[in-house]
Amino acid sequence: MSRFNPTVPVEEYxxxxxxxxxxxxAVTQLLEHKExxxxxxxxxxxxxxxxxxxxxxxxxxxxxxxIKATPHNRSSFIRVFWxxxxxxxxxxxxxxxxxYRSSRIVLMDDAIDCLMSFSDFLCAFQLQLYYQxxxxxxxxxxxxxxxxxxxxxxxxxxxxxxxQLPPVAAEENDKEEQQQDGVETATLAQCIEALCDRFKHxxxxxxxxxxx
Length: 212
What we know:
By secondary structure, this protein is mostly helical. It has three domains: 58 residues, no CATH class; 45 residues, no CATH class; 80 residues, no CATH class. Helices cover 58% and strands 3% of the residues. It has a two-stranded antiparallel sheet with strand order 1-2. α6 runs antiparallel to α8. Belongs to the CSTPP1 family. This is Centriolar satellite-associated tubulin polyglutamylase complex regulator 1. Its main location: cytoplasm. Keywords: Cytoplasm, Cytoskeleton, Microtubule, Phosphoprotein. It comes from Mugilogobius chulae.
């Protein structure tokens, strides 16, 4: 959770830090396990709950929907995951994709037989987990561009997108895109830039995106 900044409006801080989400979950857990938690006091229960959130231990034994609910939960899960399995492949051994239970999360179906180090797998896994919504949106944009369609999910008034081209030019552009095996890098980059301007979920720093 982010630290409180007195220059940030309270409403904005509560939204960015997901305080209400954790408060609702704390109350829900208290009601579901009332007999257990009320034995040592409600005040102590809330103190320990938010202490565990701060220390990133709150995601232990929790369901996947809870883990992916906030950026802090996702990063906490990745931190704990790394601590638990850091010894795997430490000597540089390469493991097959069949040895990774979640290999399909980070690789295409035709790459299942390839070998990968655990550090590389973890890097791909944590990027997929933390930025899932952003990566899904980029995939949708790429597929739309590849099919010659306008990526309506990222259209903004100031964008010089395909949708704003004159009818004849747009038609010629569609034909050109359909004949290509891939998508023009500049067009994809422009769409991703527009996506960042209006994306409501977490996405990587733009400097990192521009590097790729």
